[in-house]
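If your schedule permits, I should be very grateful for your opinion on a structural question. Thank you for your consideration; the sequence and its tokens are set out here:

===
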Amino acid sequence: MGRAKKMATVTSEGSRLERLENLALILAKQIDICAKDVVDGPKTMPQLSRQYRETIKEIEEIKGMMDWFRDNEQYDNFLTFMLGLFLARRVGDTLSLKWRDFYFENGRRKESLNTLIEDKTDKIVDMHISDVTWKYIDWYCEKTNIDPKEHLNEDIFKSLHKDWLPNNYTKKQYDEAVEKMESSYRNQFKKAAEACGINGVSTHS
């Protein structure tokens, strides 16, 4: 991630991190095959080796930022980061998520996220919630001592900006509060990247 890029991208095949790890396994097998090919191996080995090194480097950078948020006990930012990786939502959309987006009223987990309206497009997203995503949601709940069933109608991510909203706040006022939270997250994201020696990285916008 030495070049400017968006870290949080996703396809139906999995998150950025999952696809990088799968790619690393494939490249390792291809390198092993090339090493045994005395004819074409020497031609393709340099490119495969370079791609493998770059893939491993990006995996290590992502995991390094995960560790930075955890080690600094920035649990909200950690989960925001992970949901960005695994759900590929805009930061503002992620910070607007409520517990009811993930749980039914009886506390049962939802299999897909299909209640979030994207602020930028006004479209409802519908995507599978993977087991890995639930792993980090569970971790967050344990660290913050939160029982989602007791907070279904509340935002997952709290802040003073939201607390200061009037009881009958407008959508514009809410969006402005989320924008301030987003700015704070981006600052911490930048600090995490710098601490991990990553230059020119950006959040998913």
Q: What stands out?
A: Residues 41-71 form the longest helix (31 residues). The two ends are 17 Å apart (CA to CA). DSSP finds seven helices and six strands in the chain. Residues 1-13 have pLDDT under 50 and may be disordered.
